[in-house]
Amino acid sequence: MPGLLEGLTVLDLGQGHSGPYCAKLYADAGANVIHVEPPAGDASRAEGPFAPGDVDQEFSASFAFLNSGKSSVTVDYTTGEGASILWELIDRADIVVEDAPPGTLAKLGFGADTVLARKPDLVYISITGFGQTGLYRDYPATEMTLQAASGLMDGNGRSDREPLRYPMNMAQHWAGANAAYAGLVAYWHAMMTGEGQHVDVSIQESLANTWYMVYADYEYAGALQARGQRDLLPASDGQIMIRWQTSVPWEQFAIALDALELVTNPELQPPASMTVNAGPLFDVMAAHTPAKTRREWMDIAIANEIPAGMVQSLDDIATCEQHAARGFWDSVTTPWGKTVAFPGVYYLANAESRTVVNRHVPRPGEHNREILGRLLGHTDDQLDSLRAIGVIS
Amino acid sequence: MTRLPLEGIRIVDNGIVQAGTFPGRLLADFGAEVVRVENFRRPDVSRNAVFPGGRAEDPYWEGGGTYHEQFRNKRFCVGLDVRKASGRAAFLRLVAASDIVLDSHPPGVMDKLQLDYEALKAANSKIIYVSTSGYGYGGPYATVRSYGMMTEVMCGSGWLNGYPGEGPRRGACPLTDHPATYHIAFLLMAALIKRRRTGEGTWLDVSQYEVGTNILGDAHLANAIGAAVPAQAGSIDPAAVFSGCFASDGSDQWIAISVTSQEGWKGLCSIVGLDATWADRDITSRRLTERETAFVAESLSSWTRSRSKTAAFAELARAGVAASPVNSVRDLLLDPHLAERGFYWTVRQAPEQHAGLRAWPGPPARLTATPAALRARAPMLGEHNREVATGIMGFSEDEYLALEAEGAFGTTPDAAGMKPPPQDIGARLTLGPAAASARAREVDPHAMDRLRERFGDEYGREVRATDS
Fold first, then answer.
1. Which of A226, A280, B33, B332 could join B439 in a cystine, given CB atoms 3.0 to 4.6 angstroms apart?
2. Do the Cβ atoms of A154 and B437 come within 8 Å?
3. Using CB atoms, which residue from A4, A47, A219 is nearest to B451?
4. What percentage of chain B reaches a pLDDT higher than 70?
5. Does the N-terminal peptide bond of residue A120 adopt cis geometry, omega within 30 degrees of 0?
6. Residue A51 near chain B (CB below 8 Å)
7. Is the ipTM of this complex over 0.90?
8. A129 φψ region: left (φ > 0), alpha (ψ -120 to 50), beta (else)
9. A314 CB-near residues (< 8 Å, 6+ apart)
């Protein structure tokens, strides 16, 4: 891995998906990330998806994805002894990431003000649904309600049905990436000036910041986007997307699609409505695309510089030749000894080919001895007595 | 003005719409100086996307709302023809005086122009160069022409997205573009930090397909271990004990509601009027049956239908139930919470941009000690040619005039490079390859009134040079 952030120490207090994803981006870029869990382990370890035979829920796919490559320490910082260990960890951190509801950590004595008073050069990142201030600050939220609040769901789905939620934990990951960015801006400032600060990231705002042309649609034309996209074309083995754009000569496009009526039929000429890919052009394309496979259409699109894409299932993606050629996948070995593909980083640095990293998912408290012992200087006896009273595990 | 964290960082923004260029805006919000470089003969398509109107003599390429939004806070714009040797040399002078180059041309284009990483490194050994493309440099799909909605269906989002039993469905926005802007901005900062530590620049080759696969990484890992992945699951939170998206009062208005805890369940029961036998049930261990779920949904639907989505939102929140209206951009622009947070900035466009004062999303995140600041409207095409040529690039006035005369610098598109937008609003909305649905759900005749009430009476009023 490129190691852009070598030497950076990050304390991950996140319990949901947004904080851990933020810290994951740091870990994947080479930072030393310490994930702090309660002695019983994060609640998210018990969140699926789990493999069918994993009755003890040993390997949560979402936890493994978010936490591989981090160290795990278990500390009950609601206790006095645990709190003093967390302070010792904070003293050694450049960045702290948390994603609890506003005020949660303040109640435990670890609010941003208190922590920054003790360590003024620290970057303290908080990620929450609606931010640390404002009318909705304390409103409960989930992935779906935040997709709704941010505008992500608007426009997704059929026009005659309810708006559609996007899959998985996309909004939280999206905001986690924003937090990773904003946190490094604050870290840059701390490096230059010694001044740390609280970084307040709202999941709603993280998404609502990026709606590009949709704002202009409303502000300049009063228009709100419709649901009901018609843009997936039938191929012989699934669905594809193909779009005409002005850089492709019309005749060349017609030949590529084997749709000569686009040239010969006077009613099917550009520009007018033909250039609208969802309009009559879609029907013409849809009449021809079932003749070939998705992959055949991709080759035709590549040869003619026509924008295109295939609807791929997760299995398709797992065997995709592009990911293989770029060395995208890492690997991970499950507790039952099966080694499977693990989604890797999304960039190549300096065109260096990526080597397959066998990723390690830490057990709860796996690094207690190394970090609390060797790094913080607690003796084995001290750790044993902390364990005896349940402060660590 | 207070000093912002990224003052002193200069970014050459050679990107094309969205993920290619938006990261520059994110860094500009915290003080980075962005020099937008644009092929003036064939400018960015966002310049022509959604237009407030204007007179026949107006430079139509300055009226694009999407451009005004995406390029606010970018300090300079240089109209440059890098196909000319002198234009290329000018570009390299800019690179020599900068920290970061952002690019999103398809793989091969910059190489052909001899503006690949090696060429840039020769001009500036410490340069950070970020190339964003659909599939990255290399691999069988490297040269696929691609937009964010295509990598969206490639990366699994299209396949996972949908109503039960209806098959895959693409979403609304060109999906991978949006989160990718943050993933790229993060890399820019990481590369700056690495350079400060080691003195070395970096070439970062970002694949949107890989960003999409990464952001859905939990689904891909689940699939790899043979776990069931919630695909085409409709509008539910898969882990919730009860969730859904319900119609509220009004035309096509909706509210998403999700119960994930005992407290939320009790709140929902009190809202809907379900008695203690329901409310006291240990909902996380005794899940609702299908029939019970349908009954609760039915009761909740009649409750949501009888009130506005915002009223329902407030009542549900008070009862401890996670919920939110399905917000459109209109809802967001008028939202009282975002108003209180100061999320929107009002930007006065130049007279030539004939748009007056407009509201665009402001700070991506709140840095409490060094908040993001609005410092500039979107620059006009080639607005700073002279200033940048004789300043950052170090040409003399005479040299600049000669370069302008030979067409290395310019401010006006070729007739074939960009056409005036159609007058019809429906047609305008479909301009640009990224226009997703090609249809508007609604054209709000009161949009201007609503926005003036929210952002002040000056909103949307043009101030023309000739009027003042």
1. A226
2. no
3. A219
4. 93
5. no
6. yes
7. yes
8. alpha
9. B156, B159, B160, B219, B220, B223, B229, B231
- The pLDDT tens digits for A204-215 are 999 999 997 889
Mean pLDDT of chain A: 94
Kindly indicate the confidence band of residue B185, based on its pLDDT and cuts at 50, 70 and 90: very high
- By DSSP bridging, strand B440-443 and strand A223-225 are antiparallel
In chain A, what residues touch B52 (CB-CB under 8 Å)? 220-221
Could you tell me whether strands B10-14 and B33-38 are parallel, antiparallel, or unpaired per DSSP bridges? parallel
Closest CA to A307 of B133, B92, B328, B463: B133
How many Cα atoms are found within 13 Å in the side-chain-facing hemisphere of B404?
Answer: 19
Residue-wise pLDDT tens digits, B41-63:
988 878 877 666 656 567 888 88
Other C-beta atoms lying within 10 Å of the C-beta of residue A350:
13
The residue in chain A having the minimum alpha-carbon distance to the alpha carbon of residue B133 is A347
Q: Does residue B114 sit at the A interface (CB-CB below 8 Å)?
A: no
Q: Do A216 and B66 touch (CB under 8 A)?
A: yes
pLDDT of residue B172: 85
- Please list the helix, strand and coil fractions of chain B in percent, rounded to the nearest 5, in that order: 40, 15, 50
User: pLDDT of B371-396, one tens digit each?
Assistant: 999 999 999 999 999 999 999 999 99
Closest listed residue to residue A11, CA positions, set A137, A80, A79, A99? A99
Q: For A210, which residue in chain B has the nearest alpha carbon? A: B178
List, for residues A261-273, the tens digit of each pLDDT value: 989 988 787 754 4
Angle at A80 between CA A75 and CA A82, to 5 degrees: 10
Note the maximum CA span of chain A. 88
B293 touches chain A (CB under 8 A): no
Residue range B399-415, pLDDT digits in tens: 999 999 999 999 999 87
Yes or no: say if A200 and B343 are a contact pair by the CB < 8 Å rule: no
